[in-house]
Amino acid sequence: MQAQTQSSSARDNTRHQLIMAAEKLFAEAGIDGVSLRQINVAAGQKNSSAAHYHFGSKSALILSIYEQRMQSVNERRVRQLEQAVAAGLQQDVRTLVSVIVLPIVAEIDADTSGGNYIRFMAQAIGHPQLDLVELWKQEHSGGLSEAIRLLYEALPDIPEVLVGQRFGLAFEQIVHALADREKLRTARKTGPFEIDAELFVQNLIDVITGSMSAPVSAQTLQALERLQTG
Predict the structure, then answer these.
(1) Where are the domains of the chain?
(2) Distance (Å, rounded) from C-alpha 229 to C-alpha 203?
């Protein structure tokens, strides 16, 4: 029994090392710029097939990175949703946007690997072979799904199809903006490029709130009507 426990612990440790090495390399060189062999080397694995053995493919490894990070992000998001509901703010758009943004920020700021996480996410959501909707359907996505559901309810005057499109655009903006924040913080630029991290995040939440709740233009309504009747 003890031998089985040690073996399982060793496998988990190897998987973790591979995930962290892959996340860092993907963040630095892009998903297409990194091979499984390079990930094995960076993770200190003597077995050149370790990544393939544990994950089967690069796509599966990418999902594993996402799932590992999403576990703690989702836990924070669920807690913040519970607090929002307890305070009667479940229909407040800015509160819901904060519930989406702040757990990601907390994961970035949790330790020194957080910068790798958000830069990896910026690579992943823009990759042509990765389906963003499929990422959202992975394990530990309950908090995000509930926040999106509440956003639909909080925006009754905006057609549902437009709320969905706006959220897709907003989520990409959130990830890329936070990746840029990390880049600026890491570079420690001065002058007009110097930023206050908290101010940046709160302003980002304001921007996303505005884009989600902005009135629908006559031109967009006309385009939607053509779609629905044509």
Answers:
(1) 1-56, 71-229
(2) 39
Residue 42 CA to residue 219 CA, distance in Å, equals 52
* CA 173-198-207 angle, 5° bins: 35
User: What is the SS3 assignment for 156?
Assistant: coil
**What's residue 188's pLDDT?**
63
CATH number for the 1-56 domain, one of 1.10.10, 1.20.1260, 1.10.1760, 2.60.40?
A: 1.10.10
Q: How many CA atoms lie within 13 A of 57 on its CB side?
A: 3
Query: How high is the mean pLDDT of the chain?
Result: 89
pLDDT category at 152 given cuts 50, 70, 90 is: very high
Amino acid at 39: I
* Nearest Cα to Cα of residue 66 among 131, 150, 8: 131
Can you tell me the mean pLDDT for 100-115? 94
Q: Tell me which residue has tokens 């819901």.
A: 96
Alpha-carbon gap, residue 31 to 62, rounded angstroms: 9
pLDDT digits (tens, 9 = 90+) for 198-211: 999 999 999 999 99
**Which single residue is written with the structure tokens 């530990």?**
140
What is the torsion angle, in degrees rounded to the nearest 10, for the CA atoms of residue 181, residue 89, residue 167 and residue 193? Answer: -20
The answer to whether residue 139 scores a pLDDT higher than 80 is no
The DSSP code sequence of 38-86 is: HHHHHTT-SSTTHHHHHHSSHHHHHHHHHHHHHHHHHHHHHHHHHHHHH
